[in-house]
């Protein structure tokens, strides 16, 4: 059997990926299918760290958050990621995967705090580590948390799961002639003004020479094909 292309990866799941076709919240069938994909790659012996977003929950409360102080709203967003992390880890448990949630903000009665050596230990033990609460700081995003934690745990790549199967020359929903890049360098992505991750996350990955793979989480089995190094999504390389 061919070997996986990576031994340790950082998977970034947006909160919105958990919604399925619902307007907000967590869609049961969607989270279960996603975890099935995760289980498939965990079974290959690949060490998996996950950063989960919070957009799906934050969307539901956003109307009430209008006019709020930005930092306060951001803390709410971080708490939303903790809820998603708990749901994700529990869905993993139900599928026989051992997962540990680590939070960047202190909330010890609920989940353990992020401690880097402990996270590394869990990964080495084959446990899936779910990083919650982003970077722990307002004014950042969970994409930046993915770049940060990916760098900290020496992941070989950041796998950015989206609803689109890669980076395109133009928006494929608006332009029928848009084509997918199989791979593109950080510099090319900047010069062509392509949105891969937010600017802070992108800069950190580029500085750390941490490649990014943008792929579709709605396409069943795509995560495994990415892990096996097959032509799936778009690779952003140094
Ligand atoms: N957030 C934050 N700092 C972080 C990560 C997240 O303040 O380090 C807040 C921010 O308000 C953000 C929300 O949490 O809008 C949810 O994160 P994000 O938008 O990245 O989630 P996603 O879009 O991936 O679901």
TrEMBL record:
UMP binds at residues 54, 74, 135-142. It comes from the Bacteria. Pathway: Pyrimidine metabolism; CTP biosynthesis via de novo pathway; UDP from UMP (UMPK route): step 1/1. It catalyses: UMP + ATP = UDP + ADP. Inhibited by UTP. It is found in: Cytoplasm. CDD domains: AAK_UMPK-PyrH-Ec. GO terms for biological process: 'de novo' CTP biosynthetic process; UDP biosynthetic process. Its EC number is 2.7.4.22. Residues 8-216 form the Aspartate/glutamate/uridylate kinase domain. InterPro entries: AceGlu_kinase-like_sf, Asp/Glu/Uridylate_kinase, Uridylate_kinase, Uridylate_kinase_bac. Keywords: ATP-binding, Cytoplasm, Kinase, Nucleotide-binding, Pyrimidine biosynthesis, Transferase. Its main location: cytoplasm. SUPFAM superfamilies: Carbamate kinase-like. The keyword Cell division does not apply. GO terms for cellular component: cytosol. ATP binds at residues 12-15, 55, 59, 162, 168, 171. Catalyzes the reversible phosphorylation of UMP to UDP. Belongs to the UMP kinase family. PANTHER family: URIDYLATE KINASE, URIDYLATE KINASE PUMPKIN, CHLOROPLASTIC. This is Uridylate kinase. It comes from Massilia horti. The gene is pyrH.
